[in-house]
Amino acid sequence: MSKVLVLPGDGIGQEIIAQALKVVDYLNDNNDLGMELVHGLIGGAAYDETGLPLPQTTIDAAHQCDSILLGAVGGYQWESLERDLRPERGLLGLRAQLDLFSNLRPAILYPQLASASTLKEEVVSGLDLMIVRELVSGIYFGQPRGIETRDGERYGFNSATYSESEIRRIGHSAFKIAQKRDQRVCSVDKANVLEVCELWREVMIDVAKDYPEVELSHMYVDNAAMQLVKAPKQFDVMVTSNLFGDVLSDCAAMLTGSIGMLPSASLNKDGFGMYEPIHGSAPDIAGQDIANPLATILSVSMMLRYSLNQAVLADKIEAAVNAVLDQGYRTQDIAVDGERIVGTSKMGDLVVTALQEQA
Ligand code: NAD
Questions:
Q1: pLDDT tens digits for 171-212?
Q2: Contact 190, 229 (CB under 8 A)
Q3: pTM for the structure as a whole
Q4: What is the pLDDT of residues 106-139, one digit of tens each?
Q5: Ligand 1 probe mutation, 85, 259, 279, 345, most atoms within 8 A of CB
């Protein structure tokens, strides 16, 4: 029996989580998944109800659960709040509280969606890359930070900081994943300009000594961005810092057709994980039943694989998603001319039907 904290959050969060829970309910009823769900608040929804984007009740519930399934946070109505009360701070706070330092962001191109990518089919077909992003340090967390007035004008500043142990543990995460894949790690940095990246590179070289069968290469982040759109299939595992990983993984997501297809896992050293789609709360399409729920459904499958030791059920979910795409159903973000467009809720139902048909 596993206990999972469900945090829908804001914007399309409620709609996409509802579809993922249809899949969980089906597997609970028909495949002995044994998942108990606990519901909680985060982000703008939590602020509206409690005055805080990350209430203590949510942190306490997280500590009592085996995993977290999150939708997304953020929205226009909370943008003018004091910085510490904004929805995104709730999410950053939860990642930090649980020390979820290892963010796995797979970018896999479903062959059925090759024509939905903005890149040529031959460049992206067969793409299967894993970005391992450090998630609880670097410039998003470094001190000092702020905006202050100096010499009569406003001055904004942040600090890009990494300790050797923080680099070492994300390095080990990446190498362990590469061992189970094509045994290649590309470490992305900006060591030609930034001292923090010089240290990053030195430590990665040292970590690599524990994995002689895995090949380590290095790339500057500007070149990595270029290579991702030029020849993305050259990469197996890419390991990088919080900021660079944020940007590169959105770029990698678009190679696959839509940000609405990609799940992610954020793990701590004990394998506790928070699972969420890589996209945000998409306020521009919230409440219209048009958001793609597949990234969230695939986040459940990642949770089963990486935290709950249920790889067989993870395979079933992935096969069901594949079957629905094979049948030609698309949400509007992944549809090209002439394809059958369905809404968020219908897409959730179709995945459940595909699970039933497997059985
Ligand atoms: P976004 O990912 O929410 O949206 C970017 C674009 O992708 C939008 O056009 C949106 O409609 C589209 N999109 C996103 N998810 C989709 C889906 N499932 N199906 C179809 N289309 C989808 O990023 P943004 O617009 O930069 O940010 C919106 C809000 O989300 C902001 O408040 C931001 O801070 C927040 N955000 C939250 C997270 C998170 O919760 N992990 C991540 C990124 C951004």
A1: 999 999 999 899 999 999 999 999 999 999 999 999 999 999
A2: no
A3: 0.90
A4: 999 988 888 888 899 999 999 999 999 999 999 9
A5: 279
Q: Are 35 and 2 in contact (CB under 8 A)?
A: yes
Q: DSSP letter at 238?
A: E
Same domain, 195 and 56: no
Q: How many CB atoms lie within 10 A of CB 126?
A: 10
Measured from CB, residues less than 6 Å from any atom of ligand 1 are 12, 72-75, 88, 91, 259-260, 276, 279-285, 291-292, 295, 333
Is 270 catalytic? The answer is: no
8 and 66 in one domain? yes
246 is catalytic: yes
Do 216 and 306 share a domain, yes or no?
no
Q: Give yes or no: 140 in active site.
A: yes
Q: In this predicted model, what pLDDT tens digit does every residue of 268-327 receive, in sequence order? A: 998 899 999 999 999 999 999 999 999 999 999 999 998 999 999 999 999 999 999 999
* Measured CA angle at 94 (ends 91, 96), to 5 deg: 110
The boundaries of the domain holding residue 207 are 109-259
